[in-house]
Structures are given as structure tokens and as C-alpha cells.
Specification:
The complex is a heterodimer. Chain A is mainly α. Chain A is built from three helices and no strands. In chain A, helix 1 runs antiparallel to helix 2. By secondary structure, chain B is mainly alpha-helical. Classes of the chains: A mainly alpha, B mainly alpha. At the A-B interface, helix 1 and helix 3 of A face helix 2 and helix 4 of B.
Chain lengths: 151, 160
Amino acid sequence: MEDQNQPLDAGMASGASDPGLVITEAVRNDLTEIAKWAMFFAVLLFIILGLVAFASLAIAVAGGAGGILAGIFIAGIYGTLLFFPAWYYYKFATLTRQAVALDDNSMLDEGFLYLKRFYRFVGILVVVVLSLYALFLLIGISMMGSRMGSF
Amino acid sequence: MEILDNQFAQEPGNNTGLHVTRAMRYNWRSTAKWALFLAIVGLVVAGLSLLALGTMIPMMTNMMEMAGNEEAAELFRSAGSYISIIAGIATIVTIAIHYLHLRFASDLQRALQFNDQDRFESSWRHLRYYFRVLGILTISYIVLYVFVLLFMASFISGKG
């Protein structure tokens, strides 16, 4: 009978092997290419981040007191939205490439952790955007309803 | 059977120094869940935009006609088919991209659930294709942007 009396994180250590699935040469090749593209997207996002920082700085310099506030606001919002996905992609790409090159399982573990973080971040962002859409739609409908009711 | 499986796993070319850990499985489960969500949202949005594409241009043409703006209505009539074709191709490409993402997520979920090696390999292959298509499209967009910028710059300098 299987021993059920174990801590919840039993076998979660990076070295603990799972007998079910195997990382074959084909999977290895797939992971290498995925990591290359992820690095490309990370670099692209960092470049866009730099452009946004430059634009917000230009707005802050040109716009006076209001411009500084607008610059900080733009840099804050876009900086947060762009930095985390870029960082997660960058970490996933570097760790996965190194793991495949050096056969290092703990690096691969960490690489997939960053891939999970990337997906979670984008997923939550999409949920927030969809919720805002729904909220604005409801506000629009209620405003239209109240206007029609007043006629 | 297990011995045979282990032997197969140890054959050169089939197994590498890397192996699947419980921590990886835990992370993949979460990754697959979010990827499935994103793929479904993407497919729904692409489907809605395809529906909107079929109705928007005739609607805009009718509105212009009703407002008595014949020039704008004619413009929508003549350019409408080109816009529809370009937007239609873009939507189909978007659907294909989200389908690859969906296959990655669903195959990974099944692989984890049933220890299915074929599905496991298929999931990473689909993620690879997803990244490849997305990357090539991104490079194409960047090249297109640069061309448009160069064209505009030459147009402005020619006028000046």
C-alpha cells in the first residue's frame, strides 16, 4: 500500500525524478528553439521598454509639471506591463538554454518556473482587461438605459 | 513492460541527461492551464472579429448612403473588398496561432494526466511551432514598419 503520510512537497525538490515522462532528443531540440525565440521576444520587449522610458522622459521634460506626472504615469504603467513578461522570458530562455547545454536539471526546473510565471502574469492581465471591458460595457448600457428612461 | 520502457528510455538518442521532475510537472500543470485560457480567449476574440468583419463594411456603406455621403459610401464599396481580404487573412493567421497554443496546452494537460509520452512530445512541438510562427510574423511586422517609415520619410523629403 502506498505511503500517504508524507509532507505535501515530498518529491518537489529539483533532483526528484518522475518516472512517467521522458525528455527525449526531440523535446530537447524543441526546448532549444523555444528558448531562442523566447530570448528574441525578451530582447524585443526590453527595446520597447527602453523606447517607452525615453518617450515618458521626453514628455516629462517638454510638458512642465503636468508632463512630469504624465511621464511618471506612463513609465509606471507601461514599465510594469512590459518589464515582467520580458524578464520572465529572458530568465526562461537563458536557464533553459544553459540547462540543455549543460544537462543541468535544476536549471531546467527553474526555467519552467519562469515560463509558468510568464503565463500567469499574462493570464491575470487578460482577466483584468476583460473585466474592465465588461465593467465599461455595463456602465455604458446603464447610462443608455437611464437616458432612454428620462425621455 | 516497465523494464522494456526503461530500456527504451536509456537507448542513445531517446534519453538525455535531463529528466522530468515533480516540480516540473507542477509548473507545467499551471502553465498548461493558463495557456489553455489564453488560447480560448484568443480564439473567441478572433472568431468575433471574423464575424464583425462580415458585417462592419456593409453596415458602414449603408450608414454613409443613408447620411447622403455618396463619396464615402463609394469609397467603402471599392476599398471594402480589399480591406476584408487583408483582415480575413490576418484573422485566419491569428486563429492558426491560437490553435497551436491550444494544442500545446491540451496536449501537455493530457500528457501529465495519462503519462502519455507522444502527447508530451507533441505539446512541445506545437509550442515550438507557435513561437516560430509568432516570431516570423513579428519580424515581418517590424520590416513592414521600417519600410513604411522609410517610404513616408522619402515622401516628406520629396515634398519639401
